[in-house]
Amino acid sequence: MEQWIAEMLQLNDSESKMTDKQLKIIEAAVEIFSTKGFAASSTSEIAQKAGVAEGTIFRHYKTKKDLLLSIVTPMMARLIAPFILKDFNKVLNSAYPNYEDFLRALIKNRMEFARHNLPIIKIMLHELPFQNDLNQQFKEHIASKVIHRMKEITDHFQKEGQIIPLPSPVVIRLSVTVLIGFLFARFLLLPELDWDEEQEIEFTIDFIMHGLAPRN
Amino acid sequence: MEQWIAEMLQLNDSESKMTDKQLKIIEAAVEIFSTKGFAASSTSEIAQKAGVAEGTIFRHYKTKKDLLLSIVTPMMARLIAPFILKDFNKVLNSAYPNYEDFLRALIKNRMEFARHNLPIIKIMLHELPFQNDLNQQFKEHIASKVIHRMKEITDHFQKEGQIIPLPSPVVIRLSVTVLIGFLFARFLLLPELDWDEEQEIEFTIDFIMHGLAPRN
Amino acid sequence: MEQWIAEMLQLNDSESKMTDKQLKIIEAAVEIFSTKGFAASSTSEIAQKAGVAEGTIFRHYKTKKDLLLSIVTPMMARLIAPFILKDFNKVLNSAYPNYEDFLRALIKNRMEFARHNLPIIKIMLHELPFQNDLNQQFKEHIASKVIHRMKEITDHFQKEGQIIPLPSPVVIRLSVTVLIGFLFARFLLLPELDWDEEQEIEFTIDFIMHGLAPRN
Amino acid sequence: MEQWIAEMLQLNDSESKMTDKQLKIIEAAVEIFSTKGFAASSTSEIAQKAGVAEGTIFRHYKTKKDLLLSIVTPMMARLIAPFILKDFNKVLNSAYPNYEDFLRALIKNRMEFARHNLPIIKIMLHELPFQNDLNQQFKEHIASKVIHRMKEITDHFQKEGQIIPLPSPVVIRLSVTVLIGFLFARFLLLPELDWDEEQEIEFTIDFIMHGLAPRN
DNA sequence: AATGAATGAGGATTCATTCAT
DNA sequence: CATGAATGAATCCTCATTCAT
Questions:
Q1: Closest chain A residue to B197 measured between Cα atoms?
Q2: Which of A174, B54, C196, D11 is most buried (CB neighbours < 10 A)?
């Protein structure tokens, strides 16, 4: 778990170098928050698991909540990374000649993302409903952007006649719903199953494509 | 909120009379648990909101956890009520000549259920990952039954050639995913929107039906 | 255990008839007080063990402390019963021609008493240091009487030259110490041992008699 | 005789990495436990008397029970210190040519011990019957060792013909009973009396020696 | 930067006692 | 008489946070 956390945080905080202890604290916090929930986790347990004195946590993070935010906030950005890449439009026009390819790329990309960031994603899911600031941050900066981009894409493929001309919120909802449903089943609900991911992905995409195919 | 709670608990405890205070406690607990999460809710706050001495809570529920279970456990049963109705088979064969009708009945039924039990459903969703006993209860008594029934239904309509002969777990996952995705969006993610439920339901069903239509 | 408790309390409260429930309460209290100590015993546990509602205890005994006193106080009187029998002087002069016989009678009598009242004796021992009123009661009404009588007896046998003419407090202390030490070992310290009581008593008396024999 | 004192103090010093506050806590706890009993003492009262926040107690002692044990357990060892000194055998053979001298040394030694540790001894006496772990600890590590040593000594002096050849448990019981009886009377039962300790000790030893003298 | 002792407000829970039924 | 629901003060204990070192 260490590498990707360091990596992830360096992305965001490229200038502020993390101490070794600081990293250990984040690692411990991620594990404990993700298994017990934020409210049920104690800073002393985190300190212990991090091999750090209790006070040390508060030298780096003013409050327990701060610690949470320092974990979840950067993850938010990465959650929508594929939707805000600068060359997304280019990609949109050239790389994905059809909705199916786009879906396949998206699903695979987010799948790897989920695979490597599962604990933090869990934390995010659990705390979004309770932490108002997180919730707002999510709605304002994340959801709106994803929806915006998805709308562009949907419009694009609808114009091309590739998918059914339903209102774009409906198309987005249906697509995303199935996509997230798959990830949810794969990683959260039944992670212990022996999934044939390739095949499931194809079933899933095929399902969406037929569901959204223009009616004749 | 009072009526349906009373109703719900009368279902379960038709003989055991709840005190007035006990009911107040449950109501307060439901509201507080659902807005702050179990771990972040304090019994003293519950007592205050219920207009009851804190000790009174513990006269009726040995533990805070007990109070949670007394709220969530009966809800579990009702969660799958439509799947274990005695006359389900009859219904299956006669009332729903096709998968579409079945889906429509199911989606509408669960929609009403969600509408009337939203707070407790929230509690359930939030606590399932953290309360091991709840989780196990859910997997053993709820999920397995739903899956079992869904498999029967899927097999039935697959035999009739109404839906694509994919492995039933896949069919179930795709159907349920879309269904739950809709309920989730409607009631949890964007409840403040002005939904045209009838139309959304039709879009959703249409999407599933085309997604699962036999390929020619 | 029931009979002797009833008996004991009827001795004291010969006029006020105990309810069945009241008796049950006393029985339960004796058992629980003696195994957990007064402070660590809860009235609710007593009520439960007595098969009685919590409130019922307080109908008969105004406070938990009252309940304790109602158990211990009558036992106090019986503790010194042999020392205040009306015909004690007669007995003194006629029945016990020597100190040895007196000791033997005393030791056997108190032994039976201890055997039949062990739990209450335990309660008394444990609570005497903590309950000031009990303590005072004990010193004023019990200890002083025993000492007074013992002094008479000691004086008597010292005058007869049967025992060493030490100050009577010393003689009393040594005699009583050995006696109680034996009872303590027999019933409290090592009750599970297989005691040959007759022999131990003879050893004990012989020890005291030689220890107090006039020096030549 | 100073040796065991030195040793005893080393026992105490070795573990003293005590904070000032920690010491205050122990002092307060000893006083309150000894006057009200463990169960009737509240941690808040201890904290108050120690001039410390209540939380501080639990930083040093996980549990109220832990606090009790940290007071009583080391006292247990010191209770039998004179019986487990390494050079006890030497002492046995050389320093105490007769049982009387041994008794005198023992009684004086334990008397000083009692004088200086009265409150903790009280705590021990009160809690031994209720705290199972303490009880077991006492029986296994303390009582058995004392009895073992006493048996050696008794055997020794019986072989020399100095004391009556009764079964050693009887001899031990009688000796210890009188000794403890004296300490009990002196320090617990009638501490306010103006004791002539030297004389009482001599009376007591004389009593035992005559009681255990070989019959002719 | 790091520690860890100290804090005190707040946590869940227990308890003796009361009172309407 | 007996009940048992209700109480609220008190209990033991936890926790996030501070601060002197």
A1: A170
A2: A174
